């Protein structure tokens, strides 16, 4: 009798474990997507707006914990970090002026909803 009860309890435990795994697999959140937008032409000593459009699936992320832009000139070891301001509709931005012509890169460090994404985009200052 004890063996039958033990066997029944084991079967119930295994069935309960399988159903929890299926529920967890169905609730995987969509990835955090970040699109960095930079003007096509940026002139030296002219203000430029750099934006990060943040989405999760079809939803625009309005509640990012942190959006930070790291700007670095090619060939230099140092970079400058600036906090992005929320503009609405999932867009975060900075406004900056580049003092020297050259090739630069910007990395948008975005933390939201327990995820982190950091795409990098290169651009040229003329």
Automatic annotation (TrEMBL):
Q: Which InterPro entries does the entry link to?
A: Ig-like_fold, YtkA-like_dom
Reading the lineage from the top rank, the first entry is Bacteria
UniProt entry keywords in alphabetical sequence: Signal
Q: Name one Pfam family in it.
A: YtkA
Q: Which positions make up the signal peptide?
A: 1-24
- For this UniProt entry, which segments traverse the membrane? none
Q: Where is the YtkA-like domain?
A: 32-109
The name under which this protein is listed is YtkA-like domain-containing protein
């Amino acid at each position: 009798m004890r063996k039958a009860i033990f066997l029944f309890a084991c079967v119930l435990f295994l069935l309960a474990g399988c159903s929890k795994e299926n529920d967890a697999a169905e609730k995987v959140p969509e990835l955090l997507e970040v699109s960095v937008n930079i003007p096509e032409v940026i002139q030296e000593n002219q203000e430029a707006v750099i934006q990060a459009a943040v989405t999760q699936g079809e939803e625009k992320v309005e509640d990012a914990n942190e959006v930070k832009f790291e700007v670095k000139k090619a060939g230099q070891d140092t970079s400058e970090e600036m906090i992005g301001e929320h503009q609405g509709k999932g867009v975060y931005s900075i406004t900056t002026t580049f003092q020297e012509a050259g090739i630069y890169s910007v990395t948008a460090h975005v933390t939201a909803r327990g995820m982190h994404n950091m795409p990098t985009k290169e651009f040229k200052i003329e």
